[in-house]
Amino acid sequence: MFTLAHISDIHLGPLPKLTFRELASKRILGFVNWRLNRRKHLFSDTLEKVVDDMESKAPDHIAITGDLVNLATGIEIRAAADWLEEIGDPLKVSVVPGNHDAYVPGAHDKAMAAWYPFVRGDGDKENWDEDRKIFPYMRVRGPVAMIGCSTSIATPPFSATGYFGRRQARATAELLRKAGEQGLFRVVMIHHPPIRGAAATHKRMIGIRRFAAAIGTGGAELVLHGHTHLNTVYWLNTHRGRDHTPVVCIASTSQGPGGKKPRAGYNLFHIDGGPGTWNVTCERFGLNEKGTGVELEDVRVFYNNGKPLGFSNPVEQSEEE
Question: Is residue 313 part of a domain?
Answer without folding.
Answer: no
